[in-house]
Amino acid sequence: MKRLIEQGKNGAKAVLFLLIVTGFLTSCYTDYGLSSQDHDLVITQYNKKTNFSKYKKYAIIDSVFHITGDTSKPNSEYLSRAYDDFIINTIKNNMNSLGYTEVVNPKDTNDVDIVLYVAALGTKVEQYYYGGWWGGYPCCGWGYYPPYWGYPGYVGTSTYYVGSLFINYVDVANITHPTVDVEWHAILNGLLDNSSHTITQNRLKEKIDQAFDQSPYLSVK
Amino acid sequence: MKFKILTLALLFISINLSAQGFLGAISYSTALGMGNTGDYIDNFSYKGFQFEGRSFTNRNWTFGGTFGWNVFDQKITDMIHIEEGDKVSDIDGTQVRYINSFPMMVNGHYYFLKRRSPVRPFLGLNVGVYYITQRFELGVFQIERDNWHFGFAPEAGVLIPIGNMAIMANAKYNYAFSAGQSVTGSTDNTQAYMSFNIGLVFMGY
Questions:
Q1: For an engineered disulfide with A67, which of A108, A121, B40, B190 has Cβ 3.0 to 4.6 Å away?
Q2: A20 close to B (CB below 8 A)
Q3: How large is the ipTM?
């Protein structure tokens, strides 16, 4: 009898040990510890029929359009204009490297082959989740403002901010009102955070350069 | 409905366990995706477990049930290239892919050699359902699909008795028939993976 009890105890210990080990090893969604930068996306699109080699001269609109959904508000609530010039200059550097020639202050559409314009959109995202279960982005500490937690015991919220930059490449011959056909465009999307000015600039440069690097067909050299 | 039937079947099996010679097992489970599963995540999975109960109907046959959990995940930084007609898209970003598979099955096993043999090889067949969730994360975006699949899993393994307990090692080919839509939007949502399990067995005979 004693032997049986001892075996039972050993068996229970073994089960407990295995349960603990498997519990530690198994979770639905592994946390890869992604940083804000790891959530950056660079999307480029173009039309296969476009012959980019015919374009040589370009002009770029010298300010970034902030999409606010309200024409009386030219500045986004969530985006700073401190990076606008840097963004425009980085795009110019890439275009010049690809063999294009910039035309400053063109008199009319005959002076250029293409026009580039840049738009930016900042979005506030509020995420709700139920106690004990986490299903999305970002984990604590991300976002321009720290995510806050509320409604203890019932439901929590997390707030984060997403920024998108749209770079559009338009053949002036194809500009028809009210729509504009773009030959190529890039969308840069990522979490906004409270990094320093330099770090944010480096991140913007890296992603704008990436948009052009992954579009070698734009080269007119 | 199918979930209720399965629950009743597992309950019936668990009642039988107390009445006859039985074995109960808890195993650590690893797995390798195959077919659509392997195309989506080709990492070897080290995360999983399975619980199992088997009831002896005679010296060589058991019938029982099993519940398991296998987690597949992978972080990928490869560029995504999509062509739709004349429109070509390239996407640079970090992808994180997940599959969680929960097999819930009834099974039958045949054991070779004698009950007191130092090693007892066995063959088995599991039939039941898989609850499979697939998640795709890219940038700040996330898509998730979950489906119930009918499926089966042929199995081969060995029991190594140690006193009233045993070590069990087995391999299962898990095949889940197509159900619903995959996370990539495909209607071919067949999932398959090979699982390799090792665990402790509590012998009740």
A1: A121
A2: no
A3: 0.78
